[in-house]
User: What shape does this take?
Amino acid sequence: MTSCVFCQRSELEPRVFFDEGAWYALLAAPPFTRGQTILALKNSAADCPTSLTIQHLKGLDVAIARVVEFLHRHFQPKDVLIASLRGRDPHIHFHLMPLWEVEEQEWRQQSHREKGHLFEFLGYVETKAKLRVKTERMEHGWSEERHRAEAAVKLQPDVAALRVLTSYGSA
Ligand SMILES: [Zn+2]
Assistant: This one.
């Protein structure tokens, strides 16, 4: 499956900051929320890995724990949400989403939700991110690809700092 974005790692390389065992991680561009990270299984065989087999998930425990720790150290979010749907991109990957106190407080004031309602909060974050992306594209007349490239440039200071933490590329 050559069209798989996670099998063609070279195109993602400018955003990659972690590579250990069978897993690699990169910052999402444009992110839903600051620090959104994708942890993907490396493509070691000829086929794109799409099934959640025990073989495929080997080393996931260590990889998630390590990357979440690096995200806490660099971004210092309130918490990190871990999610995986693999809808549009069936290649096994996980989204690690830093959750931000400020964003949550903003939403709680608007929604009058004092606690809980995580999925409603995520819906709010997604709607806000989509509006931000749409506005930026319209302002600059960018295509989706151009926008992703511009977002990737903006992420470079974070990628550089994370690479120092993870010793990426120094092995
Ligand atoms: Zn793939």
In short: Strands lie at 16-20, 23-27, 37-41, 79-83, 93-99. Residues 118-140 form the longest helix (23 residues). The CA atoms of residues 79 and 99 lie 5 Å apart.
